[in-house]
Amino acid sequence: MTEPFKLVKASVAKSFGHAAMRYDDVAVLQRQTGDELLERLSLVTLSPQRILDLGTGTGRNLMQLAARYPEAELLAIDIAPEMLQQAKQTFRTAMGFKRWLPNQRRPMLLAGDAESLPLADNSVDLVFANLALQWCDLLASFTEIERVLRPDGLLMFTTLGPDTLLELREAWASVDDYPHVNVFYDMHDVGEAMMNARLAEPVLDMDRYVLTYDSAMALMKDLKVLGARNVNQGRRRGLTGRQALKLVADYYEQFRDDGVLPASYEVIFGHAWAGTLNPQTRAQDGSVSIPISAIKGLSE
Predict the structure, then answer these.
(1) Which domain holds residue 44?
(2) Residue 234 within any structural domain of the chain
(3) Nearest to 164 by CA among 201, 102, 124, 206
(4) pLDDT tens sequence across 119-157
(5) What is the DSSP string of 241-257?
(6) What is the spatial distance between Cα 83 and Cα 62, in angstroms, rounded to a whole number?
(7) Does residue 245 belong to any structural domain of this protein?
(8) Under a CB-based contact definition with an 8 Å cutoff, are residues 271 and 205 in contact?
(9) What does the alpha-carbon distance between residue 272 and residue 289 come to, in Å, rounded to a whole number?
(10) Which of the four, 98, 169, 218, 249, has the lowest number of CB atoms within 10 Å?
């Protein structure tokens, strides 16, 4: 597997911790991919007793999982404790006085890293991870997920691919040689990590999303609010000068179309199973899904 970048995990936790209060204001892509991932669960016959929302963030998907599987026990893990506080508030707001009813299930909120899950072996029936794994070592995370999944347990996830923010990356490359935009694993590497972690019947497909902005500065401001900052070890230290930012913004203008600037995202969707599969619990995906064997064949 290639390794496009090395993360400083403390920086990841710090960035998302600072972003917690305002995250939902700008999390447009996260809502779109979360809704799509939740919709894909309708293609699966599954009655999970315990669900893990991995990288729960502010808890939006957690509440939708609770609505879809009202009898399930809910676990939420995030690397940023501040995000868990927001998820707790999201639950309180969504449930209102219902949260005080007898036998009302409350989600268990745990601070933790996907690379070292604070859970017992074979303890979870469904792992749901929306745009969280791109901040992790894939093999370590998938190995941990496989460890905690029960037999017939399901992993559903999204992550970002290498063409994410390609316009912004190109604009920065015109200014200097520092890595200003995080580079993510491609679909072949994701599939290889899934197989090496011994996840069963992994399937991947990819979709492209485009958000639009009035200016490059507006895009970079939203990325800062999201906490999706540059956390590469080789990043430039210190503040970036106004002249450099102006050069980036000027270069970005070549991408303007119909009066707006695009910000492209490559989103990889994936699912896999753990343990011996019951044929009645297998997914029923459409033709857009690409088996791992096919991805390997294309890359050779």
Answers:
(1) 9-167+183-210+267-299
(2) no
(3) 206
(4) 999 999 999 999 999 999 999 999 999 999 999 999 999
(5) PHHHHHHHHHHHGGG-B
(6) 12
(7) no
(8) no
(9) 12
(10) 98
